[in-house]
Amino acid sequence: MEFGPIWRSLLRNKAGYVLIALQIAVTMAIMVNAVAIMQERANDMARPSGVDEDNIFTFASIAFVPDTNMRALIDEDLDLIRNTPGVIDVIATNSFPLRQGGWSMGLTLEPGAGQESVGTAIYFSDEHAVNTYGTRLIDGKDFDPTQITWNEESVSKWAPAGIITEALGKALFPDEQGSYVGKTVYINENDPVKIVGVVDRLQAPWKGWDIVEHSMLVPQRRDGEFQRYVVRTEPGSRDELMPVIEEMLANSSKDRIIQQMRTMTEVRHRSYLGDSAMIKMLMFIVTLLTVITGLGIVGLASFSVSRRTRQIGIRRALGATKPAVVRYFMLENFMISTVGIVAGGILAVALNMFMVNAFGLRPLSWYVIPSAMLILWIVGQLAVAGPARRASEISPAIATRSS
Amino acid sequence: MLKMTNVSKVYRTDTVETHALREFSLQVDEGEFVSVTGPSGSGKTTFLNIAGLLEELSSGSYELDGRDISKLSDKERSRVRNEKIGFIFQSFNLIPELNIFDNVDVPLRYRGFKADERRRRIEKCLDMVGLASRPKHFPAQLSGGQQQRVAIARALAGEPRFLLADEPTGNLDSAMADSVLDLLSEINNSGTTIIMVTHELTLADRAKRNIYVRDGQVSDEAPELQLAVAGGQG
Amino acid sequence: MFRYYLKLGLLSIRANPALSALMVAAIGIGIGACMTIVTIYYVMSGNPIPQKSEILFNVQVDSWSPDDPYDEPNEPPEQMTYLDATGLYQAGDDFKQVIMFLSDRVVQPEGEDNLPFEIESRATTHDFFDMFEVPFQYGSPWSASADTAEERVIVLSQALNEKLFGGADSIGEQVMLNGESYRVVGVLDYWQPIPKFYDLNNNDYGMPAQLFLPFSVAVANEHGSAGNTNCWKPFGDGGYSAFLNSECIWIQMWAELPTAAEQDRYRQFLDSYVTEQKTLGRFPRDLNNRISNVEEWLEIQEVVDEDVSMLLGLATLFLVVCLLNTIGLLLAKVMRRTKDISLRRALGASKSSLFSQYIIEAGLIGIAGGVLGIALTWLGLRGILNLFSEMDFVQYLVKMDWVMVMSAVLLAVVSALAAALYPTWRACSITPASQLRIQ
Prior knowledge:
The complex is a heterotrimer. In chain A, β8 and β9 (191-199) form a beta hairpin. Chain A has helices at 3-12, 14-46, 70-82, 129-133, 166-172, 238-252, 264-271, 273-307, 309-317, 322-359, 368-392, and strands at 56-63, 87-93, 103-108, 118-124, 137-140, 149-150, 161-165, 184-187, 191-199, 215-218, 220-221, 226-233, 256-263. By secondary structure, chain A is α+β, with helices and mostly antiparallel strands. The longest helix of chain A is centred in the C-terminal third of the chain and has 38 residues, at 322-359. Chain B is of the alpha/beta class. Chain B has one domain (31-54, 74-219): Rossmann fold (3-Layer(aba) Sandwich). Classes of the chains: A alpha+beta, B alpha/beta, C alpha+beta.
């Protein structure tokens, strides 16, 4: 393989080749980082919310007539819904995973002000919450109906029990090997909360929160005008039941409006809309970029071949076989690509470090750069194949032509 | 050693048929220095291309060392060109991006020799043509005569069966031309067969045997004396 | 000579249609990708109220916890407590201020067939409309006295007026909200500042609230806040009134301070207010008041999505790749024409005239690339609109105005010229007659 002569001849006539190498380098830098971003988003989107998403839908009920007996209304609604065939369970609450809005509080290990606190999302619940969400209780037990209270307007004390997620437990008690059940934490500075149960997973409403796995179910029902209902159905029944329940509730009370009827799937979709759009856009850019770079190589390689017809003819005259000519150009392209890819690797890492700093991107997985290198090598070789083949067809008789 | 028998070459387009060579026959023995002469359009370039296996003949036979090389595949033809024939072109045809050493190296690479074998041959041939001191120079840095010497070194490096020279001094002034021709004679004296194609009779005189070509055929008559213009083209 | 070069340029482009088309395509695609993101960035980071942005200030006081700042490194909270908003508003009556918050209300239209529906309502003092230059179609804002008297008056958006009253002059009509009756005193004209700078806590780019009612009335009727509420300290028993007296932040506050002197005076006013509050046991943190004008506030709030900034960086690099492509193509074109160049030089063309010729040719390609780029940008924006079809506000971000169109062409021409520099230099270096075969 004639690496030496090819390298020396490349150095003589750098311009065109430097351009290809540069193009490959920048393409690589973009490709690698775009893939890193796509990976990160895809990973985020793959996180389970902890609820039975396929079979859950949610909606809001907004009462607008003053002095409505909210507690009676809520109980009536829950009753109606629970008795609808196909419904597994339902709760009236303040929020749910991935809603992008909700309530958060800090939990401390000791009462009093000025303590280090661990943040968590708060879901007001009753004894039906765990069953409605479909989240798995891995320790302790569910709420007992006697533990559930209604909030009192004039009293701001928090309920003394709570069900937490495993992640929240780990954050509160990092050195604890045993059970979190029975331990007490403090909410709102002074109100004690005894942990009665642990669920394996239940995400907070904010998908971008770095403590999104911290949630706590609070055994308290709230009687505000704005209620969010979460309904879990039998598999397959969700789509038919949604309009049925909407109409049923619209008819059962004219003092409130029902809106934002959404399946959990749709909630997830809306929540991650930005991320899925980003993935699609980056996919498009990377593909377009590869095509453009590939075409660029085809163009410059064709041109380079056309400038060297005489040389190719001479080589053929001197005994080069057609495959030898093809190999020459493939090898030349390989060497140029390699320079570009190595430079691109360095550029990609530099760009990645910048992005980690500026945008909090997670650093690259180890296999991204080698994979990008492989792809670009292949693209380069594919791109040069056509011109190389055309080069091999050049007749050796060109060598004897006088001009 | 080399035998062409009734070789014809016809170029066909949609409308025109050109008989560049007709019933051309030639025999060259080992160690000869033969010139093939004729005016432009006589077919000598076609002869050159056929002799050098740069083009295929339309009919007839071409034997080299007893082997019929007229109907070989492209791969085999490349091999023959590489191992048996040493080309010397009128416009030198050195590759401008490569230095002297790499230029002489080109046919050796296709031969598959190892690095030390190649180096040995290249140094020997550059020495033979008097350019051993300039291996890293580029063609653009050399005079015409020197470039042609490099081309000769390249042709010799593979120890071919014969050298095939096409107007070897066509692009050189008379002083350089003389020195190149002296070199060729020297090479021939040490045993290398040379076939030289030219339109200049003065050049042809330097060869030991002359063949005349006219209208695509070997002709017995020597063409009219032509005034050779230094540096002229056929 | 310029016309001559123009002619040569056009001839050359026509003589090399494939190569020229490739160059135009390379530039066009690069510009298209870049300008799509730039347009979005430009709209997102635009100044929504340029005629007044320098004199409108968001007000922040640091009422936060002694243990940790609201935000690193030492940022005061983005909103105000009820105590501070009303305290400052009343004490600073010789300044122009506004305090407000967002709420959700249910409109109960008349007639059995008209279903109630929910809308966003903004509870604000009367100053809002004048300060933010909100245009009125009918009527006018309520007065200061209406604020103090807690009159049940409202101002409707144009869209809401359309929905309730068919767009007619509805001044004096009554509208029922959550069982409370309000009298219409004003109807707004079309108004949609992008971004919604005055309240960046709720959907920066969405529609403004559909109706406005007096701050005092909303509080009197215990309208809940639909925006973000943060509390660093638990508030005691007592429901809504406890909430009002708490350290929870949920109110937005702005001031209009036309001169530097006014701004200084206001800063002193804030300082003395906070100092006084400290004697009452509040404001445990050090003095840390801020006033930020509109553009400063938009930057602090990082109103441009990080994703957009990232995409902008990548799109620029994409353009670089397209330009490298173009340089290669131009180089190829030049190398193909060495004979022509060498001949012209032999016939007396100077290096600079060759340079001009080729640069002008590049400029033509740039213009063509720019036009293609505009078309591709439009396509790109449609694509983005499609991707985000569930989010209404995106349609306001994907509009190209004349500035963007001109920028696209300018960017294309500048890029083409930049790409042409090296190939043109190579062209000019070709010596006279070097490529002509002189025997």
